[in-house]
Automatic annotation (TrEMBL):
It comes from Ceratodon purpureus (Fire moss). Heme binds at C435. CDD domains: CYP74. Belongs to the cytochrome P450 family. Keywords: Fatty acid biosynthesis, Fatty acid metabolism, Heme, Iron, Lipid biosynthesis, Lipid metabolism, Lyase, Metal-binding, Oxylipin biosynthesis. InterPro entries: Cyt_P450, Cyt_P450_E_grp-IV, Cyt_P450_sf. This is Allene oxide synthase. GO terms for molecular function: heme binding; iron ion binding; lyase activity; monooxygenase activity; oxidoreductase activity, acting on paired donors, with incorporation or reduction of molecular oxygen. Its cofactor is heme. It comes from the Eukaryota.
Amino acid sequence: MAAPKSETSTRPLIPIPGDYGLPFSGAVKDRLDYFWFQGEDKFYKSRMDKYKSTVFRVNMPPGPPIADDSRVICLVDQKSFPVLFDVSKVEKKDVFVGTYVPSTKFNSGFRVCAYLDPSEEKHTKLKQWCFNFLARNGKNFIPEFHACFEQSCVEWETDLANGKKASLSAEVQQFAFNFLLRAICHQDPAAPGPASLGKHGGPDASTWALPQLAPIVGNTGLPHAVEEAAFRTVPIPSLLVQNKYDALFNWFKTYGKEPLDMAEELGIDRNEATANLLFFLCFNAYGGFNIFFPEITGFIHQFGGPELMHELHDEVTKAVAATGGVVTLGALQNMPLLRSVVYEGFRFKPPVPYQYGKAKCDFILENHENSFQVKKGEMLYGFQPLVMHDPKVFERPGEFLPRRFMGPEGEKLLPHVFWSNGPETEKTTVQNKQCAGKQLVVTMSQVFVAELFLRYKDFTLDIEGTGKGSKLFFHTLTKA
Ligand code: HEM
């Protein structure tokens, strides 16, 4: 007998497949599958095969004792996933990292913007303020990036000349952090001064972020038993990273005068603004770039090799000939291959892979084949890497195709690119939860690749370690 149709969908209405198992043990079993027995890829794919569905029920880590309720409806296709952007259907309150909420002690006791639902007045104020200070400093980002990136290039070249290892991973922590703070607060965090962070700013921001994410982080390169005991038995207390946080907070309090004054003009308390500014720049912004810059470099190396590198080098060199040899917004307009490579990087491996939202009401959800009844209060969860590999939208989804987003056909794919927590063709606003830095992120990622290939014709990389703990080093760098 054919499945009944729902009132709002033409697709057959079927029960959401999958189950959660027994309380506690079901969640622990799924967690062990996720991090240990199966690993991330097999975890999803085995369930998709078993249930013949891209929508299914499962428990997501961390589960007990850190999360009270780990039950989610998992979405891994292009049709169902965008419901997570529809804030009329899902609530985005306290779901930034998933089914648990890190202590507000990591953020001076405040629920910072990323944890707020757009229905909360504070979200509107904080996000609007973020837009305002990004816009005010728009002209600073590219020059500051250039200055900071150049310092790292000198480090790499000196290291290689001296037979030392040239660490991409370590230098990203310097330039990705420094250019942001210099652009917005007009002070070099490494420069001497009463609150100077020296060369510790980026590394300290990474250390402060880690315990907030630890319960959902796996594949760190540590033995599984160590990961399980250290990250998923009890939350890591904020006290362990308090000194790093205090140093960062003190820096923003000292040098963040301009953005903090702007916040006060909007009626935001100065301490709360400082905690948010720190989170915007050290978690959202630096955290994202710190993942994406090494990744895109790795993809170009792994999937493009010298041929793609030389094409990029040619394209960049020609484009900047008209702008005095300097990377500018205008020059970026004439780098279609580079732009496509950056989008393919965001598609191939979205830097923030997980999105959550709690159903605000009962509604019918659709994937490509079926429709499903979702009940108010159920947690929806999307694993974006699989959504970005949906074969119904992306041809040869498992391949990194540098030209995928070029030309009119490539342009048509952009509405399906969701790295920013929304379609690439939609605008981030105070009413949605799309990344506040969306435009800046795309521009600066293009600038990063452009600066790299302006200075170098090609490079080779060495990778040390495995998983998220792996480190990239330049083995060779051929200067232009
Ligand atoms: C590669 C870099 C970046 C990536 C991958 C990234 C990704 C994201 C994603 C996926 C979200 C949504 C999280 C969720 O609710 O599920 C988000 C939110 C946010 N991002 Fe970004 N981001 C990046 C850089 C930036 C930058 C440069 C800024 C600028 C300050 C920024 C500011 C924000 C803010 C404020 C939010 C919260 C938005 C809201 O509450 O409505 N991000 N980002």
